[in-house]
Structure formats: structure tokens, C-alpha cells
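<goal> How does this chain fold?
<sample>
Here is the protein in question

***
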Amino acid sequence: MPAVIQVENLSFRYAEAKKYALKDLNFSVEQNEFLCIIGANGSGKSTLCNALMGLIPSYFSGKMKGKVTIMGETTSETTIGNLSKKIGLVFQNPFNQLSYTTSTVEEELAYGLCNMGVPRDEMARRVKEIAKIIRVEKLLKKNPLELSGGQVQRVAIGSALIMKPSVLVLDECTTQLDPLGSEEVFDIVKDLNKDGVTVVMADHDMERVARCADRVLVMSDGEIIALDTPRAVFENEELSKHGVDMPDYIRFGIALREEKLYEGLSPLTETEAIIIGKELVSL
């Protein structure tokens, strides 16, 4: 089965910048995969998300090399409007995603469909369907500017989903939310992935990444330094040199193995230590 996303030799330098924000990236994303992108601030995560959506090179000016292909279509050879039918992007700041031209959540969700000329009956059906998925049925008549951060984030996700994309890209969309709001948004994303949506998510919560990702892509200074399963990635203690923390359960497991702290299982195998560490974190 062909990859839904193919990134080949991708490099990008913003206009007037002295260094490249992305440097010769090569990777693919399979259908229905949940790929998490992690890395320190400034590592290139947001730039990569924008490139996947076609905002680079269509919106952000600069020098681009290589190419990004979404479901067989090269982003530099089409429009963002065409790409939005295949891939949806949710920004780090949900308020950047509001149109600021609507007076209700219902109208906000339908905004993209209006621009595409979707018939009114179809718009109403999709709004009702998406509102249930993102859990805002009771908020449809409220002004988007009166919503909490978590509610706006759900509306932002809904605005992307209502276009029925096969791929959803989320750029650290829980950064500004409290723990409960973050989990609410993440639960929605997990459910979408289970229903067949391919997810690419830049995230900063390593516990969540380790728990839910199929693969983890680690970035540092615009380059890919690791791309593997969560366990393979987080067991690499060299990650700390790139500003990436390992999940607590792996840290505990390593400490148990090295210090022989767990009575009855000393010395621990690597697998035993990680399992015990995970159990300790969940207590």
C-alpha cells in the first residue's frame, strides 16, 4: 500500500534567514498511522507541519528544496484549497484558526464548506455530525469568542475535520491547555485515528506520545535524528542531548535496572525494568 505522505530530500529556509529550518528530510507516513513529531523548541516541528499542509511554499516565503507528496499530489504543484480536501491542519494556537467572521460555533464549523460551495443541506448534516465527534453539540449557538481554550481547540479540530481530510496534522495543539483539556483533545484525536484518519501530531507530552504513537520522529536543529517505535526511540539515552526527555516510566525502569532497587528482580532485564517503571507511573 503506497504511503499517504512522502517527504523526499526536503529542505527549507525562511526568507532572510541565514540557516535552513529543515535539512534534507526523508520519511513517509502510512495510511491510518499515528506519527508523533517531537523535539526541543526551534527544532523544526512547526515548519514541518506547515510544509505537510502546503503552507510551505505557498504561504511562507523562502527557499525550498525537495518535495512533499500527499496522497499522490505534490504540495508545490497544487493549491492549499485542493490539499485541504485531503489533509487538515490544526494550529498550535487555536485562536489563529478562527475565521473571525462568524457569530456562532455552527457557522464557524461550516465556514470552509461555504467557501467550497457545499449545498446547505449537506453543510447542516456535516456540522451536526462533526459537532458530535468533537463534543460541542451544546455550544453550536454560542459565539466562538466566548468559548474556553479547550472548547476553541475542539472547534479548530472540527473546522479541519469537516472538510473530510484523510490526514490530520496537529501542531502542538494542546500546549495552551490544562491537563484535562489536553486529554479531552487527545481522546478525540485517538478516536479519529481508530476510525481510519491518519494522524501526524507534534507534541511535547512524552508520556502521551509513548502511549499512543505508532512511530516517533525526533527532530533537532531541522534534522531527523530518530524515527522508530516509541520504545526504540525513548530507550535511547542520547535523546537528552537534543532537549528531549524520556517518559517517566522508562526513566524509572532504567534507574531500577541500573541501581538494582527492585527486590526480588535483581538484576532486572531491560524489558522487566521498563514494565515495572510503567506500573509505578500508573499508580
Summary: The longest strand covers residues 5-14. The chain is about 40% helix and 20% strand.
